[in-house]
Specification:
With 237 residues, this protein is α/β, with parallel strands linked by helices. Helices cover 35% and strands 19% of the residues.
Amino acid sequence: MKLALFRADGSHHLGMGHIMRCIAFAQYLEKLEVRSVFVVRDYEPKVTQLIQHHGYDVEAIPQDSSFAEDASLTSKFASQYGVNFIVTDLSHTDNIANLNEYIKYFQVLKATHKFMITIDDFIKTDFPHDIQIIPYCGAESINYESNGSTKLLLGPAYFIFRQEFVEAAKVRREIRRDAQNILVTLGGSDLLNLTIKVARALSKVDATCLKLRIVIGPGFTTSVKPQVKKILHDYHG
């Protein structure tokens, strides 16, 4: 059986989108009889626990590792597990702010002679990816500069949906004229505490038949949940 290594990070300040997208990718790979292992920076234990909950092995690297140390440890795990290819999903402001080191990071990983797939919206001709996925609307119409050796997969046709969303889309639903159920979800983390603001605003709506449901993501701070519970209790009585 083939093995993939996913290198992605998640935390309260980074969000959980990269991690969840890679988990979805890994789940699709299972259908092709490809197992996966994850390598993450040790920002928060809940990230490791989330990945393990989905049935994947996780290796953690120190959160304060330099790009060079990160690349060295990731390469070590790739060799240790004997992976066939590496998938990275690391495009966030912390890394882009150090662009030269970010590029060198990928060059070190590529030196392991592993096939590399990268989910990234940043194109540089010296990025040594074999496949680069940019799954966002409009990407397919942009004339990206490529080094010729990287295969670009552009646009929403390559968006990686989680399986639960794929299944939910198959269910036919009646859209009522008057709303009765409202679901509030702002993703895996909520750095600006917008969930609390939205919940408070909705709680002021005078609609006794309205049902509010609020999703608390794994990257939320522990103080959010009790505040949301109080708002919902006061609203529903």
